[in-house]
Amino acid sequence: MAEELDPFKIAQEQLDEAASIMKLDKEAHAILREPKRVLVMSIPVRMGNGHTQVFTGFRVRYNDARGPAKGGIRFHPQESLSTVKALAAWMTWKCSLADIPFGGGKGGVICDTKKMSDKEVEALSRAYVRALGTDMGPEVDVPAPDVYTNPQIMAWMLDEYMNIARKSEFGAITGKPVEVWGSAGRMDSTARGGMYVMREAAKMLKINPRRATIAVQGFGNAGRYAYTLSREIMGSKVVAISDSEGGVYDPDGLDLAKLDEAKKRTGTVQGYKSKKAKKISNEELLELKVDILIPAAIENQVRADNADRINCKLLLELANGPVTPEATKILFEKKILDLPDFLVNSGGVIGSYYEWVQNITGDYWDTDLFYAKLDKKITKSFNATIAMQKEYAAKGEKINPRMAAYIIAVERVAKAMKARGWY
Ligand code: GLU
Fold first, then answer.
1. What's the pLDDT band for 2 if we cut at 50, 70, 90?
2. DSSP-based helix, strand, coil % in the chain, nearest 5
3. Residue 106 among the catalytic residues
4. 352 in ligand 1 pocket by Cβ < 6 Å?
């Protein structure tokens, strides 16, 4: 039978597995298997040519037992309701594992921003917020950037929201530019959090980060900063990186200035030039023999059909959903430490939480304080995950890190629902 690749079915399958391991109450399980609320919006936008184009947008509030829904908005040509539902579920577990006072949500629009002008992207961003209306807000549902959205888009969205709300509520959206009270440190916090996890995992596996080789799939916010920070924080060598067009491999390590130059000149990192540089496909990148593999692009990259060829010691899921359930099992059997997305990339939403706190209190921090708090928080999640794995191992049950993290996250949400009388 072909492997299930529908993202929401995967999210449900993961929850079902965790529920059975932790013997979750049946009623809590039933509530957590479905999103609390799904919005599908048709969004008309007047395009540059004067014609109106109708876009389809989604916003899913998966669960808000522990606080307002929280999660990014993706602008992607292949966006689907199933993906947004899955990502909203994963946000619920992410916020819970990080132990921050948010539930989970996610948004998306089916669109190709590469074929749109800045003015059209702005018009779409504003129209998306008008369609949401008061279904967002600092105490309701708080969006942030994700694939193909960025701080500028957040600023346009916030401006539109504040016009609707007729209030100056900067905490309604996070991941904003610092000029409109985005937080110092938020820009690279997804990758930075991932690097703190990498540091702890390398320590545990006795990998010397200074000698480690790394391959990164993706050159967006997460991938590009994973590249720079792995060098800055750990002194590691990134030997391969890719974007949606494909990747480049150089055993001597890649140079950022040259990568940026290649991207600017040719539209892809594949235009990179050096003595030993070799063009590779995204699939080849995943199968390189490296110490650490960091998928930092999109979901379903490591699957049943290629998991066996993954050749690293540590796999850090910086993207959302890059490893399927079948692949998770194969990697576990191969003794590759595969750390789950909602732990590894939680630095993004932890950073968003700090931004929201600063917006609400009006007390602004410097990057040192931000980084120190982020480090402490994400390291705590990593330790809790490993401790949960050990707790089960002591009972004679071998569970993978994803399941360990699920158990922690689901238990917290279930307890909040119980206290609130939902079941
Ligand atoms: N889009 C990021 C994620 O998937 C950040 C979400 C947020 O900050 O709300 O975790």
1. confident
2. 50, 20, 30
3. yes
4. yes
